[in-house]
């Protein structure tokens, strides 16, 4: 678009997923790092999917580990594929293929492939605890996958916002105001908070307005990181439906 | 199963503690990408070579500002030799095709704005992905730098606000809403003229899918945003500009923002209460309660500036003549005080003169009229008061009303109690037998009740109760002082300070004079001693006694009692005497039990009574009737007159009955 380097940098797509996709034939350290970050962030939806498919906890853990190893090993992202626009959709499709192939193979022989597994925070116990807390009504595996995905995105944006606030020295205000992010119903009125924070009620409203706005921005960021296109809104709509 | 969200009904996962759908909805509402917010604006500054390449018709580029929206360069148009301000929008904006299209479309509306107080738009477009605006260059400062140095002189601030309102009026008529009126956008030329910049850009930005503002700037702008702008951005209309204008005017006058329970401008700047009212109205939370158009605001500001100029001229030509305060008294507390005082006086008057329900009703009606007139007069005279009342919440208003009612009830109750303790004293002496003489007893009872109620004229009562006069005077004074306290600060001179006191005093004294005149008039109308079977207390003592005499005579005649002998009443012999004679008539002063003492050495009141004992023809027990002739201080002329009158009646009855 321009030959100005500043402008180029500004308008360039720098999401993690696009870094993974646009790297050359040889995997660069950047690419591997970006993919590792993405995978370690979004492993749980895959685990939930495999569990819903009927595998037991240990098998599910092994399968997901294997899947990630294979993913990093294969490095075939450069191949054109409309599905690749979204990391979420790509991951699910790849996992499905992987599971079909795996069924036809001897798992023990291939498992690990001699490669170092990803340094995931992956203990079967934690994952199982979480899995057992999930409502069983969302039993379709695809649906469970999308739902878990959405929850992770939301949770990450929330922790980022919290970290930002704490870094800005507003941890007290954040811990008080966080519950108000989505709704003030069933919570103490703003007027009751005002003296605790020694600000006016109006200032609380403004702060909350800003927090909500900032959360929205962070969330869009988080989602954009998993997209190669700029269609954050379409992805938002999909996740919104998944949460019904 | 976790509880569902109260807003959308989605289930809330335990680890998130928020409704996931509501959280996602926040991202839908936020049209911003965090990347744009985090970016340093300096990254966006284009080099001079690149500028020259993009804009070959301009030369002499100089960066004069970089903000959240983009950068502003001063440039000279080569052919026209015109200096322009070239505003380049951030590249993120150009990257959004929909925004660029809309930007160009709406910019056409902006380009049509031609007003001396609006920064003119010369050119607009897109060059190689950079959206730009070429605007009139104002060589000067902006209002922010002026305000930062402290509050502006009222005349200057009001004049700037008037120009701003005129500019907004023009733009609104053309269908363009500014949406981001703030001191930074008010440019001040070297000759002091002002120009409003950045029309309508805020709307483009808000609606666009890209954030233009860095966080710090959002902070600054929020204070100028009308409440509806951040609560319901899509319902905000031109009245949001009027709110922002109110904030800017307040800031110009006081040097600070109207945050929290802010002070009225007149407290911190030498402006009149009508400026307060104007600012408060513009800052109303509800758009419907603000001025409805910039034209209205402009007209009001023009009037204020004109008045200010006229006052300044007058002061210059004749310094002795000061502009009088707009109103003499502005306090609704004063009006309530008048109401309380007049009500008590009227009620007392009605009670004392035995006027019955109609007088009470008339008094209430008159009082309501007086209150209404006073209240509306004061309200009209004080728009600040109107604005203040309008700003109270219904709860607060009800609370204040309740406090007023309670205070009034307590004060009124105390006064009634004081009067009632006096009224109650006289009623213990009357204990007639109820058999026979019904007519007489009823007459006597009613006349006594009327007598007890007041006995004398209001002037007599006031003379005998100096503490009431003192109390009334204190009330009047308290009302006056209350009025002053409530409107403290509304005037700056002693003349202004005393005027409301004088007005309140005149009101109260005037109403008392009217009241007394009414009392005397009523008394004069009621010379007939007996009316509808009631002995009037307003007639003379002689007339009352004559009435009693005739009533007693008539009653005895109707009962056909035989009276054999009259003699002074004597407790020891009364029973034996009564056995022998038919009727005993006795007239003597009776000392008042529990006399009302005004002081330790004050006079004791005595009651003069006519006591009649009637023996029935049979052997039944004798009956006793006591007729009360009135109360007066012991030894006073009035007491002597009453005593003589009682004796006279006794004698005449005796004589007549003997004859018979």
Describe this structure in words.
The complex is a heterodimer of chains A (244) and B (660). By secondary structure, chain A is mainly α. Chain A has one domain. Helices cover 67% and strands 0% of the residues of chain A. Chain A contains 13 helices and no strands. In chain A, helix 2 crosses helix 3 (29-41) and helix 4 (43-52) packs across helix 5 (57-74). The model of chain A is unreliable at 1-13 and 113-117 (pLDDT under 50). Chain B is of the alpha+beta class and 660 residues long. Chain B folds into 4 domains: 38-136, Phosphorylase Kinase, domain 1, CATH 3.30.200; 141-196 and 223-317, Transferase(Phosphotransferase) domain 1 (Transferase(Phosphotransferase), domain 1); 332-525, no CATH class; 540-659, no CATH class. Chain B has 25 helices and 13 strands. Chain B has helices at 20-29, 34-38, 48-54, 91-95, 97-111, 143-148, 154-173, 201-207, 215-222, 227-231, 239-254, 265-268, 273-282, 294-317, 332-352, 357-381, 383-391, 394-425, 438-453, 458-464, 466-486, 494-525, 541-559, 574-580, 637-659; strands at 58-66, 70-77, 83-89, 121-127, 130-136, 141-142, 186-188, 194-196, 530-531, 534-535, 583-591, 605-614, 623-633. Chain B has a 5-stranded antiparallel β-sheet with strand order 1-2-3-5-4, with helices on both faces. In chain B, strands 6-7-8 form a 3-stranded antiparallel β-sheet. In chain B, a hairpin with a 3-residue loop joins strand 1 and strand 2. The N and C termini of chain B lie far apart (108 Å). At the A-B interface, helix 1, helix 9, helix 12 and helix 13 of A face helix 1, helix 2, helix 4 and helix 9 of B.
């Amino acid at each position: 678009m321009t030959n100005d380097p500043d402008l180029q940098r500004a308008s360039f797509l720098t999401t993690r997923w696009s870094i993974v996709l646009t790297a050359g034939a040889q995997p660069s350290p950047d690419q591997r790092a970006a993919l590792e970050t993405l995978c370690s962030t979004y492993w749980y939806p895959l685990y939930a999917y495999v569990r819903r498919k009927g595998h037991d906890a240990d098998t599910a853990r092994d399968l997901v580990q294997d899947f990630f190893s294979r993913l990093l090993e294969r490095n075939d992202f450069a191949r054109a594929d409309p599905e690749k626009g979204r990391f979420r959709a790509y991951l699910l499709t790849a996992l499905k293929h992987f599971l079909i192939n795996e069924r036809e193979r001897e798992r023990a022989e291939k498992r690990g492939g001699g490669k170092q597994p990803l340094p995931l925070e992956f203990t079967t116990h934690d994952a199982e605890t979480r899995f057992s807390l999930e409502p069983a009504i969302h039993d379709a595996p695809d649906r469970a996958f999308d739902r878990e995905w959405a929850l992770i995105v939301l949770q990450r944006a929330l922790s980022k916002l919290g970290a930002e606030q704490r870094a800005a020295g507003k941890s007290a205000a954040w811990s008080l105001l966080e519950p108000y992010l989505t709704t003030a119903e069933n919570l103490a009125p703003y007027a009751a908070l005002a003296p605790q924070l020694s600000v006016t009620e109006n200032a609380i409203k403004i702060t909350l307005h800003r927090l909500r706005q900032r959360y929205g921005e962070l969330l869009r960021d988080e989602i954009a990181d998993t997209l190669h296109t700029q269609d954050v809104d379409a992805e938002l709509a999909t996740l919104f439906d998944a949460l019904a | 199963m976790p509880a569902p969200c109260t807003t959308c009904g989605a289930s809330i996962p335990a680890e998130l503690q928020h409704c996931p759908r509501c959280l996602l909805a926040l991202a839908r509402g936020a049209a911003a990408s965090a990347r744009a917010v985090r970016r340093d604006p300096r990254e966006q500054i284009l080099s001079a070579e690149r500028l020259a390449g993009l804009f070959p018709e301009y030369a002499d580029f100089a960066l004069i500002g970089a903000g959240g929206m983009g950068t502003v360069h001063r440039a000279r148009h080569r052919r026209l030799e015109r200096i322009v301000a070239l505003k380049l929008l951030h590249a993120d904006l150009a990257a959004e095709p929909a925004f660029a299209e809309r930007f160009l479309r709406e910019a056409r509306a902006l380009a049509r704005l031609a007003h001396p107080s609006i920064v003119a738009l010369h050119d607009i477009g897109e060059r190689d992905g950079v959206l730009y605006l070429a605007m009139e260059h104002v060589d000067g400062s902006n209002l922010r730098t002026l305000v930062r140095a402290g509050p502006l002189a009222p005349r200057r601030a009001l004049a700037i606000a008037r120009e701003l309102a005129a500019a907004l009026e023009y733009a609104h008529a053309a269908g363009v809403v500014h949406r981001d009126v703030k001191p930074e956008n008010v440019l001040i030329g070297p000759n002091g003229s002002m120009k409003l910049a950045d029309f309508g850009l805020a709307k483009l930005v808000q609606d666009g899918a890209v954030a233009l503002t860095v966080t710090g700037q959002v902070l600054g702008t929020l204070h100028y945003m009308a409440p509806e702008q951040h609560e319901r951005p899509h319902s905000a209309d031109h009245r949001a500009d009027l709110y922002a204008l109110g904030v800017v005017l307040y800031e110009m006058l006081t040097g600070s923002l109207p945050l929290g329970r802010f002070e009225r401008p007149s407290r911190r700047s030498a402006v009149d209460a009508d400026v307060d009212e104007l600012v408060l109205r513009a800052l109303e939370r509800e758009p419907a309660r603000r001025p409805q158009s910039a034209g209205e605001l402009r007209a009001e500001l023009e009037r204020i500036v004109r008045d200010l100029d006229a006052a300044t001229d007058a002061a210059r030509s004749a310094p002795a003549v000061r502009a009088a305060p707009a109103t003499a008294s502005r306090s609704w507390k004063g009006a309530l005080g008048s109401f309380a005082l007049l009500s008590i006086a009227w009620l007392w008057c009605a009670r004392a003169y035995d006027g019955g329900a109609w007088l009470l009703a008339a008094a209430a009606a008159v009082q309501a009229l007086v209150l209404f007139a006073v209240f509306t007069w004061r309200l009209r005279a004080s728009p600040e008061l109107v604005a203040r009342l309008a700003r109270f919440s219904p709860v607060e208003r009800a609370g204040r009303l309740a406090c007023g009612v309670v205070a009034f009830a307590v004060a009124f109750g105390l006064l009634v109690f004081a009067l009632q303790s006096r009224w109650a004293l006289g009623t213990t002496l009357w204990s007639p037998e109820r058999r026979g003489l019904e007519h007489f007893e009823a007459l006597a009872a009613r006349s006594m009740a009327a007598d007890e109620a007041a006995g004398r004229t209001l002037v007599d009562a006031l003379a005998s109760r100096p503490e009431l006069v003192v109390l009334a005077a204190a009330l009047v004074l308290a009302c006056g002082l209350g009025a002053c306290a409530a409107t403290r600060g509304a005037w700056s001179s002693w003349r202004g300070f005393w005027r409301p006191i004088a007005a309140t005093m005149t009101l109260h004294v005037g109403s008392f004079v009217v009241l007394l005149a009414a009392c005397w008039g009523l008394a004069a109308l009621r010379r007939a001693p007996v009316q509808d079977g009631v002995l009037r207390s307003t007639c003379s003592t002689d007339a009352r006694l004559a009435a009693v005499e005739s009533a007693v005579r008539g009653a005895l005649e109707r009962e056909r009692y035989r009276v054999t002998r009259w003699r002074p009443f004597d407790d020891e012999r009364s029973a034996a005497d009564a056995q022998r004679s038919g009727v005993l008539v006795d007239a003597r002063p009776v000392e008042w039990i529990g006399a009302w003492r005004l002081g330790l050495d004050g006079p004791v009141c005595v009651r003069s009574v006519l006591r009649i004992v009637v023996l029935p023809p049979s052997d039944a027990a004798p009956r006793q009737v006591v007729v009360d002739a009135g109360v007066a201080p012991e030894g006073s002329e009035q007491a002597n007159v009453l005593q003589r009158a009682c004796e006279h009646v006794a004698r005449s009855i005796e004589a007549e009955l003997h004859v018979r």
